[in-house]
Specification:
The structure holds 2 protein chains of 2 kinds. Chain A is 44% helix and 15% strand. By secondary structure, chain A is an alpha/beta fold. Chain A folds into 2 domains: 181 residues, 3-Layer(aba) Sandwich (D-Maltodextrin-Binding Protein, domain 2), CATH 3.40.190; 183 residues, Periplasmic binding protein-like II (D-Maltodextrin-Binding Protein, domain 2, 3-Layer(aba) Sandwich), CATH 3.40.190.10. Chain A has a 6-stranded mixed beta sheet, sandwiched between helices. In chain A, helix 7 crosses helix 8. By secondary structure, chain B is mainly alpha-helical. Chain B is built from 14 helices and 2 strands; from the N terminus they run H-H-H-E-E-H-H-H-H-H-H-H-H-H-H-H. In chain B, strands 1-2 form a two-stranded antiparallel ribbon. Chain B is globular, with a radius of gyration of 25 Å. In chain B, 26% of the residues are buried. Classes of the chains: A alpha/beta, B mainly alpha. The interface between A and B is large, with 49 and 41 residues.
């Protein structure tokens, strides 16, 4: 009798354990029916700025259901800084990944290379491909296939506070030398700092690197160029800006500190892109939108150059609802949607035909950024492009905080790249 | 000396039990284990589910981690199956290469150096502060329970919440600390932006988080010391310092060795404080071994699973060596005392 009870208890205990292990099989998301009407759920991970851009994108995304009433759109805003890793985690484990992701241009070839994205050639996701700007479409191609649809394109410029400039009686700096003298004058006249330079994100370093005639890598000749003399010079330039007091920086929380400082009029300038416009307008200094001035990034000794960036919409290869996802990607990048978004957020469309629409053509920010984007420096769209920032940002911060010299910093980045890109020089 | 007798007998019984425990451990035969299985099969069966679960959730990751550390696995060559794309694993066995790289390279040793500094300073500061506060709260002072409650608060708040709160306090431009300093006419301190300040800041935060645990544990230890000992010592004319040195310290020994060991292991692997406060920055100034291992596995791309697991295994080995060494030192001291 006692034995019988024990055996039963054992079986029961094991049974409970096994039941706890299994049984997480979630139901499928549905999908399109034979009739061709789309249904099911489309989860979209957006990475736009919270508090300003996200509201517009959420509304636009949910309007997709007007044309497809049986589809549910699930809008999720993932902070930009975390999205790349979150998507990789989810995509690799196969659970919790979205159907559609807003993928930064540099991430797209990487995700495609890892096999996380569905090829879009021949699907409804791509429409009027000839209408897309050439630079915008470039980052969506990998190994002869198209893996994403361009959503927005951007570059960088100097945002400046016109009022502070007027108080100090200075003009917008065109070169880095002018930037220093202008900052000194602003400090002397108004007590404010000239420039906020993000020290925790190496993307903000690129325009200085290009300005000295440098680049991260030379993909055509398979050469690593970040540690050549131009690269070292660029590190010296940014360090000098911070050391001389022309610019202030932070090693953490850069985005928030930059936006706060600029919006409250504590700094006169920042380097930023169209994605910051809507957020900047919410600041008390810019209640009068006309107070926000914009100009090209200052030129270094080798000319003037800003990085070309932007975002694409990509479809997860493991999506259970591919058809609706394709349609959603098409809808979000269509000329009508882009025009609506551009009008409200001053983001740059990726379709030629949108620029000539009346609301877009008269937008001051877009009118400024379009020519900047046209001559912006394009990065090589190789899978490793998304990997180039991790080694760079560590050394960039180290140089700015005086933990290492520009020479050693540049060399360490170069060595990191050589490990990453095996047979490059 | 009648008062001394109970304490002596306590020590003696403790010593006896240790000796008995050891002798029991050494005398195991094959027959004994067989007999134990046939007589205690019921107990074994009851333990089995737990053992299996632990093997699955601890054993499997451990073995897999050790295996990965002997390969060149990274994000690009592990097996993945994403919808229509089926990609087989293509990483290779590389033997101990990862370990040689880690130990001969400067990065591991540099990070280890700071990790040791961080652990030693955090543990010694928390212990000293915890001991001081416990002694204060052990006396009968007005509002004692209110103080106790307040001092336990850092422990009661979820760790990540307090770390975020500290991050706001430390903010160079908008943080409360610098605003207070500015009120006193002191220039803004780059709490998290300067490598040296950042190191001090993370230590301060971790000490703040760690003191309640030390305090509570030591307070418990203090309360188990019989009050008669202090009375007797006072009658014999022992000074406050002598009482502390010769009654409190030995009385707290068993508690403090345990909390120091625990606290060392926790601090050595204190991921949230470093990660949420500085992410290991500025540059890599505050990067400890676990946060760096995390960085290899989740932040760099392609994600370097092999190197990350190598660091993980090395952390495990270091902590095991420390624990064994610590235990040995204590046992030696125990024999002397």
């Amino acid at each position: 009798m006692r034995r019988g009870i024990a055996a039963t208890a054992l079986v029961a205990a094991l049974g409970v354990t096994l039941a706890a292990c299994g049984g997480s099989d979630s139901g499928s998301n549905g999908g399109s029916k034979g009739s061709g009407e789309l249904s099911g759920t489309v989860t979209w991970w957006d990475t736009s700025t919270v508090g300003s851009e996200d509201k517009v994108f959420k509304k636009v995304a949910e309007d997709f259901t007007k044309a497809h009433p049986k589809v549910t759109v699930k809008y999720v805003n993932v902070p930009f800084g975390e999205a790349q890793n979150k998507f990789k985690n989810a995509a690799q484990s196969g659970s919790g990944a979205p159907d559609v992701i807003r993928s930064e241009v540099a991430w797209t070839p990487e995700f495609a290379d890892l096999g996380y994205l569905a090829p879009l050639d021949g699907t409804p996701a791509l429409k009027d491909q000839g209408d897309f700007l050439k630079q915008a479409a470039a980052s969506t191609k990998y190994n002869g296939k198209t893996y994403a649809v361009p959503q927005v394109i951007d570059s960088m410029g100097i945002f400046y506070n016109k009022k502070i400039f007027k108080d100090a009686g200075v003009a917008v700096p065109k070169t880095i030398d002018e930037l220093k003298s202008v900052s000194a004058k602003i400090k002397q006249k108004t007590g404010k700092t000239g420039l906020y330079l993000r020290g925790d994100d190496a993307y903000w370093f690129l325009s200085f690197l290009y300005g000295e005639g440098g680049d991260l890598v030379d993909a055509e000749n398979k050469k690593i160029t970040v540690d050549n003399p131009a690269g070292v010079k660029a590190f010296k330039v940014v360090k000098d800006l911070v050391d001389s007091g022309a610019a202030k920086t932070d090693a953490t929380d850069g985005w928030n500190n930059m936006q706060t400082a600029f919006k409250e009029g504590k700094v006169a300038m920042m380097i930023n892109g169209p994605w910051a416009v809507a957020d900047t307008y919410t600041g008390k200094e810019f209640a009068d939108k006309a107070n926000l001035g914009i100009a090209p990034v200052p030129a270094g000794s080798g000319g003037q150059g800003a990085p070309q960036g932007g975002h694409n919409l990509a479809v997860y290869a493991g999506s259970k609802n591919l058809d609706a996802s394709y349609a959603f990607a098409e809808y979000m990048t269509s000329a009508e949607t882009q025009a609506k978004v551009s009008k409200e957020l001053s983001l740059l469309p990726t379709r030629e035909s949108v620029y000539i629409k009346p609301d877009v053509a008269t937008n001051e920010m877009i009118a400024f950024f379009k020519p900047v984007v046209d001559k912006a420096v394009e990065r090589p769209w190789i899978p490793e492009t998304g990997s180039l920032f991790a080694p760079l940002v560590t050394e960039y911060t180290k140089v700015l905080t005086g933990q290492t010299t520009p020479e050693t910093g540049a060399k360490t980045v170069g060595d990191g790249y050589r490990k990453l890109l095996k047979d490059w020089k | 000396m009648a008062v001394d007798t109970p304490s002596q007998s306590v020590v003696k019984t403790a010593g006896d039990s240790v000796a008995r425990g050891r002798s029991r451990g050494t005398g195991s035969h094959r027959g004994a284990s067989k007999r134990s299985l046939s007589t205690h099969w019921y107990a074994w069966a009851m333990v089995a589910p737990v053992t299996i679960v632990i093997a699955v959730i601890i054993g499997y990751p451990l073995v897999r981690g050790i295996y990965l550390s002997l390969t060149d696995a990274n994000e690009r060559n592990v097996a993945r199956s994403i919808g229509v794309n089926q990609i087989p694993a293509s990483y290779e066995f590389v033997g101990l290469d990862n370990y040689t790289d880690a130990i001969t390279g400067g990065q591991f040793l540099g990070t280890l150096g700071w990790t040791v500094v961080w652990t030693v300073s955090c543990v010694s500061l928390t212990f000293a502060l915890g001991l001081g506060l416990a002694n204060i709260l052990n006396r009968r002072i007005a509002g004692r329970s209110a103080y106790r409650l307040m001092l336990i608060l850092p422990w009661a708040v979820p760790g990540f919440v307090s770390v975020f709160a500290w991050r706001f306090l430390y903010n160079q431009d908008n943080g409360l600390l610098n605003k207070v300093l500015a009120g006193g006419g002191i220039d803004a301190v780059p709490w998290l932006n300067d490598p040296t300040w950042a190191k001090l800041s993370v230590i301060a935060t971790n000490v703040w988080l760690g003191v309640p645990f030390m305090m509570v544990a030591l307070l418990g230890g203090l309360q188990s010391i019989p009050g008669e000992l202090y009375e007797a010592a006072e009658m014999d004319g022992a000074s406050a310092w002598q009482r502390f040195r010769h009654i409190t310290m030995p009385g707290l020994r068993s508690v403090s060795t345990t909390v120091v060991l625990l606290s060392t292991i926790w601090t050595f692997n204190m991921f949230p404080v470093i990660f949420l406060l500085t992410r290991g920055g500025p540059g890599e100034a505050t990067q400890i071994l676990v946060t760096q291992a995390y960085k290899f596995s989740f932040e760099v791309s392609p994600r370097d699973f092999a190197q990350s697991s190598t660091w993980g295994v090395l952390i495990l080995v270091l902590l095991m060596v420390f624990a064994a060494f610590y235990q040995r030192v204590l046992r030696k001291q125990g024999e002397v005392w």
